[in-house]
Amino acid sequence: MAAARPRHVLITGGSRGIGLAIAQLFAKNAYRCTLISRSEDNLKAAVATLHPLPSYPIPSEQTSAEETQKLHNHTYIPGNITPASTFWSTTSHFGTYLPKPPIRLPSAHPSRIDVVVNCAGITQAKLFTTLADATMDKIITTNLTSLMQGTKFLLRHGYLRGYNRHEEGEQFSPVVINVASLLGVQGGYGAVAYAASKAGVLGFTRALATEYASHKVRVNAIVPGYIETDMTKDLNASELQQRIPLGRFGKPDEIAQAALFLAENQYAHNCVINLDGGVSAV
Predict the structure, then answer these.
(1) Domain assignment of residue 3, yes or no
(2) What is the per-residue pLDDT across 35-49, written as a single tens digit (0 to 9) for each?
(3) What's the gap between Cα 59 and its chain centre?
C-alpha cells in the first residue's frame, strides 16, 4: 500500500552547501523539505531549486485546502539557531510552518517529521591559544549544543516520533542524521574548538542511538572530509589534495547520497559513514 503522504525531512543549514545538496536529493526522491537557516533570501533561493512534489491524498477530511497546499510544498524556517535555547524554545517559529507543540500526530499526518538532518555549523581557522572565549563558545554552541537542543525539542514535542512500522503499509522508522567532520576524528591544525565540537556530535550520535532505540527512532552520522563548499573555499586545495588518496575534494551531492541511504536503510542505526576520499587512512 502506498504512503498517504510524502515523507518529511527537516534540514538545519539547508540553504547552501551540503545541507542544500541533501535537500535537493531528498526532494528528487519525493520528500517534502523544510529548511532552517539564518538568511531568508538564501532560503527562498534554496527552496526554488527543489524538485516539486507529486500530489498526495490528505488522510484527514478536516484539513483545509490552504493547509493541504502548505503541507505538500517545500518550505523554510528563517532563524539563527544560536543561542540555541532562544530559537528552539520560541515555538512561534514552528507554529507558522508546523503545528505548535505539544502535539501527538498520527504517523499518517502530513506534518510529521520523518528525517532530521543536523547540518548547520561554522568553522574555525585560528590557533587555540589566540581564540577568543566568545568565539570558542559560539563554535561549540552552533555545532554541538544547538544540535542537541534542536533534536531534544523535536523528540519531546512529538514532531519526530517512532511508530508501528505497518501503520502506513510500509517499513519506515524516523531517523536523525548528524553531519560531523573528519576533524572530529583526526583533529586538525587551527581547528581545536571545531574538532572538539564535531567529536561531540559523534558522541551524541552514539549515546542517543543507545537511548532512543526503544522509541523506534534511528540515529546515524556522516563524517565528511574536505568537501567543495564555502567552508573550504579559503583552504590550500592543491596542498590538501596531495594528502587525499583520491586526489580531490568531495562534492556535496556525494554526501547527500549517504544521507539518503541512512534515511532509507531501515537497518541503519548507530551507523557512522566516513566520506573523506581515504585521507583518514594515511
Answers:
(1) no
(2) 999 999 999 999 999
(3) 27
